[in-house]
Amino acid sequence: MKGRIKLIVLILTCIACNFITAIGSPEKNVGDISKYEVEIKNGWFYVNGERFFIKGINYTGWRPGESPHDLDKVNLELVDNDFKLIKEGGFNTIRTAGGLTPQIMALAKKHNLMVMHGIWFDQDIDYTDPERINYACQMLRDELSWAKNFDNVLCFLLMNEPPMEKVRDAQKKGMENFLKKIRDVVKEIAPDKAVSIASWPPLSFIDHSFWDVVCFNVYIYSPVTVSHSLGYRGYIEWLKENVAGNKPLVITEFGLSVSGSQLGESTPGHYSYGGCSLKKQAEGSIKMYDELIQAGSVGGCYHIWADEWWMIDSKFVHDNHPEEYFGIIELEKTPRGTLRPIYYALKEYNQAIVIEPKRLNFYNKELPVEVYVTEQVGLVQFRLNNGNWQDLKKEGNFWWKAILDISKHEDGKHALEIRALDKNNKPLCSKKQDIWVYNKSKPGTIPYKVEIKTDKEEYRIKEKMKLEITVTNAQGSPVPEQPVYYSFFQPIGWEEYISQKVTDKQGKITTQFSTFTPGYLTIAAGVTYKDEDYERKFGDIKTVLFK
User: Fold this and answer.
1) pLDDT in tens, 23-43
2) What is the pTM of this model?
3) Which domains are delineated in the chain?
């Protein structure tokens, strides 16, 4: 869900397509590469026994004049160069929505890249039709017959943003039954592999608990659920608490487009669907990357490696549309591509990912510091409030950690700085963030709670839905005169409505809403908690069905 236009790609497939010989040398010797053992525990991926933070890139190998129908034309020498640059950029994972071959998977392993392996079938089907269910299951079996043998598969992703028209037709129970059936196909053929779908905001109401990992595509500018009501971090925190639970949460798409055209409105910070400058693309993407980490995700995948010329009209023409300009590399001059500034911004950020502490969390007596690094890092140091630099302790291959005694620090905001040095003590990156210490009077973990209630769960189209939004504080008392940013999102037709009201003496807002479009409607409400320099968003989301 990169914007208002939902594109469904139908990939022509035959039994032999899984073993197509692409241009290049598919039988290259990939060298002596260690075996990967992947497991999930404690809400994280583990690779070879070590916690693994996903620093991912969405990847396709198609160049101008190529599309998903041209899998046999993918140039393996270009793919090899792509993966070299991706690895040098500090990434450890590629995520796909299809378009993989054994040769491409072998090249990913050559460069020590893990894979979130997407398997495509036509998603524009009746999810309750036994014939179409069998079709989808057979497509999965065909690809799994060879893909199951690659140990650098982190997980299989079976769908990408299922179309909400088909979800509406199948309804919640029918959709969940379909998803469980395709999950079972993977578990039958590759029982040792994790499995999920790449979900998206309008689908958050269905059960995601039967997946091994919960994956969502989330962009900062759309829909209004994110951009108006909860904000980027607030929305992902809501996903973590209400959808993922104790499962790993991965943001499988985030990014910005540098097309000349902009569709829709800009969000605070002027991030939009298309129309971003190169500077805004880099700044906004780093902001999303940082906030998905702060919200508790265990990884994210930037969308996308190369501009996709095939997305809108002719695959031979670079159309001035946001969908075709998300790339880290542009392909106007050469098929190898030219790196945009965002590559260097992400490369620097990737050198040291600060997992703990979390910005806006409260810490008492002890401050955990956990940093996930690249192979280039030889030392990680920290300092608090511009004090002396101190070394973190290395644990495993990629982690640097410490537990700081903050029992004597005054309550309030403090400045933490972390820097990573290479093996020659040259700086690779430096990061600063505020931390909040409360030794004497620790506030509530969630200062505000927002709750949405409707008078019914299902409505007829044009019927008025009665809605109540309540805001309470950490003690459960109502919060009066609190601005509430609420919104209604109907993905079918991409209808969005936003509003703002102030709570009454009982901490409540009441309103009504109706729609002419049948389908699942997402209602979201968010508030901003402020206490001097501390500011944080909280919210709630509810989905109802209009028939």
Assistant:
1) 333 333 333 346 899 999 999
2) 0.93
3) 53-354 (3.20.20.80), 365-437 (2.60.40.10), 448-546 (2.60.40.1930)
